[in-house]
Amino acid sequence: MFVLDAAGVVVHAGAGFAAHLGTDTAALRGRPFSDFLADGDWPEVREAAAAVRAASGWESRRCRCRLSGVGGGAAEAVGVEIEFAPYPGDGAGSGRAGSGSGDANRAGDSDATGAGRVVGAVCRELSEPAAARLHTERDRFDHLFDLVDDAVIEFEIVGVEPIIRSVNPGFEAVFGYDAAEVRGESLNDFIVPPNADDEAVDFDQRTADGKANHAIVTRQTAWGRREFLYRGIPYSRGDGRQYGFSIYSDITSQRRAREHLQVLQRVLRHNLRNEMNVVLGMAEEIREATADPRVDHAAARIADHTETLLRVSEKARTAAAVLDDQRPDEVVDATATVHAVVESRRTRYPAATFDLDLPPSLPVSVGPKLAQALANVVENALEHTSEDVTVRIEAKRCENDATIRVSDDGDGIPEIEWAAVFGDEDITQLSHGSGLGLWVVKWVVESAGGRVDYDRRDGWSTVRLTLPLTDGSR
């Protein structure tokens, strides 16, 4: 046992504590306690002692540290846990600080009344592996905390307020507030907009209850409001208080870009469809009213191109519906899906030959959108080849994945399209829209954690879909 004054100086040391440091009690009195700690451990010890001094009633605090011996040096450090409690004595002769309390008063006249003192006791010694593990974990956390780009705030729930204890450089960069400015203040006062007070209170209450939070939120920065992916992680130090980490990832640009694209594609698709229907109707009227072959030919070309644009609009509508479907992936039978896609096209393409090589069942994790992806691949093979095209579809298990190969003996996908979809070519040649279906295939498969590949060999074009098997099928 030992006693520290308000400045952190040892004013009393018991024989047992001195033995921990390999010395006698006389050598410890009057020395700053930080002299006996490994580098970097004093702030945590000081915080625990200060918390006991500031408490209105009797309250103890524990902390972990490394005692390094009278001579100092991290190489000699021994990991221990120390419990601080209020100093029970109220004067020089109280004698309640432990044996030898009279010696305590000889350490300094300014502390003769015992004001600001705390009693410390070594509760247990940590084994060297445990101590090493503790500090390794601390070093790893500090490294992550400092270098992660996201804003990270460590806070303590005091009453109902999240009081900031520390912030990382990412917080300063994202929110624009200096660490010194916000430390010790309520987090909500700085970053929560007035209309989000109730939401923030709910999050704080969940943290106080030991529950995690996860949400898309709007928060105030020094430069205005931004949208964030917020994760709240509670934790406890075993001192009866509740702490937590808030992690904020700025997603403002992504959210705005998605909103802009949604508005533009809906407006353009709607206007395109309406205007093209008018053009198509007028072209048909011209053809019916004219006897001039040249005018009839021009009107027919107008009608053909208008119908092409309408098909592109319909593909865009289908693509938007697939991509806007935010339902989580679910298990579907790839074999049954292939059969359904093929059967619905046999009557529409009677001259085509379908050659299937499928297992009895092939459960994959992708959901109903797999049908849309397969339909686009098969349609691509049927629409851009001769009427008597042969379409081969093969599916099989391959370790943890399922592969579905759709091949045809047509002319293949134009290089300008497959290079943009499957390769590294810039996305510049989509004006005709025939490659839109392939993009839908790519987006659907990749959103499920799969991959799409294309190959042209020996007169056959093959689109291969690699999809994750369900856990029970691996």
Give a quick precis of the structure.
With 474 residues, this protein is an alpha+beta fold.
Please outline the helices and strands.
Blueprint: E1 2-4, E2 10-13, H1 15-20, H2 42-54, E3 61-67, E4 78-86, H3 101-104, E5 118-125, H4 128-147, E6 151-158, E7 161-167, H5 169-175, H6 179-182, H7 187-191, H8 197-208, E8 213-221, E9 224-236, E10 242-250, H9 252-289, H10 293-324, E11 331-333, H11 334-346, E12 353-357, E13 363-365, H12 369-383, E14 390-398, E15 401-408, H13 415-422, H14 436-447, E16 451-457, E17 460-468
Parallel strand pairs: 12-14
Antiparallel strand pairs: 1-2, 1-5, 3-4, 4-5, 6-7, 6-10, 8-9, 9-10, 11-13, 14-15, 15-17, 16-17
Helix pairs in contact: 9-10, 10-14, 11-12, 12-14
Share in helix: 25-40%
Low-confidence region ranges? 90-112, 429-433
What oligomerization state is this entry in?
single chain
Task: Profile the largest sheet.
Answer: 5 strands, antiparallel
Main sheet: strand order = 2-1-5-4-3
* Shape summary: elongated
Question: Distance between the terminal alpha carbons, to the nearest Å?
Answer: 59 Å
Mean pLDDT: 81
Q: Helix/strand-derived class?
A: alpha+beta
Helices, by number, come to: 14
Rg, rounded, reads 36 Å
Approximately what portion of the residues adopt beta-strand conformation? 25-35%
Number of strands: 17
